[in-house]
């Protein structure tokens, strides 16, 4: 097992109107403090009961930060019909979606790659590793969620770790854990 990991910092604004003027500054600061990339949660209030980071906010962030080597966002889209969000999010480093939200994950993976982004697939706590396995050879990241999608600040679900371990053993380059990860959960 590897001793290294990538660290991403999630941008979870409590009030996007307050955050908008300083989001670029905060994003650059996160990368200066050691984040390898930024994880932006995009929610549409249909797939989960919350709204966060639509493409106008992403465009604002791009404009604030500019073309910066440190700005490598992973767009984690928890939306219905993730196909409609690919083009507006083009320019991000990676587009991560939930396979349950689309009728044709294969076509969506192809479209994401054609838009110049890496592909991530996210699995909710109730989704099995087997449901993601058919796509493992076509993606860059498997996002094993350790909280229920939709809200920040949830407690890390340790019972999801066997799923991450299973992914790590079957697909060594595709594992990542999302949600509730802090100093007490890292060991």
UniProtKB/TrEMBL annotation:
Cofactor(s) this protein requires: Zn(2+); Mn(2+); Fe(2+); Co(2+)
GO MF assignments? D-ribulose-phosphate 3-epimerase activity; metal ion binding
What is the superkingdom listed in this entry's lineage?
Answer: Eukaryota
According to its UniProt entry, the protein's GO biological process terms are: carbohydrate metabolic process; pentose-phosphate shunt
Keyword vocabulary terms for this entry: Carbohydrate metabolism, Cobalt, Iron, Isomerase, Manganese, Metal-binding, Zinc
Which EC numbers characterise this protein's activity in its record? Answer: 5.1.3.1
Q: Catalyzes what?
A: D-ribulose 5-phosphate = D-xylulose 5-phosphate
Q: What does this protein do?
A: Catalyzes the reversible epimerization of D-ribulose 5-phosphate to D-xylulose 5-phosphate.
- Record family assignment: Belongs to the ribulose-phosphate 3-epimerase family.
Q: How does it assemble?
A: Homodimer.
Q: What is this protein called?
A: ribulose-phosphate 3-epimerase
The protein's organism comes out as: Oncorhynchus mykiss (Rainbow trout)
């Amino acid at each position: 097992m590897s001793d290294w990991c990538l660290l991403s910092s999630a941008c979870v604004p409590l009030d996007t109107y307050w955050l908008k003027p300083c989001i670029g500054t905060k994003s650059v600061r996160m990368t200066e403090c050691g984040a390898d990339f930024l994880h932006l949660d995009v929610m549409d209030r249909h797939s989960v009961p919350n709204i966060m980071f639509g493409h106008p906010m992403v465009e604002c962030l791009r404009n604030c930060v500019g073309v910066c080597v440190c700005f490598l966002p992973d767009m984690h889209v928890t939306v219905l019909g993730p196909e409609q969000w690919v083009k507006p999010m083009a320019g991000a480093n990676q587009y991560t979606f939930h396979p349950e939200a689309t009728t044709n994950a294969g076509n969506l993976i192809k479209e994401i790659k054609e838009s110049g982004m890496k592909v991530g697939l996210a699995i909710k706590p109730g989704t099995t590793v087997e449901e993601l396995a058919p796509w493992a050879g076509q993606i860059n990241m498997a996002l094993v969620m350790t909280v229920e999608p939709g809200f920040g600040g949830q407690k890390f679900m340790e019972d999801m770790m066997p799923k991450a371990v299973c992914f790590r053993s079957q697909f060594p380059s595709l594992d990542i854990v999302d949600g509730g990860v802090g100093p007490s959960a890292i060991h």
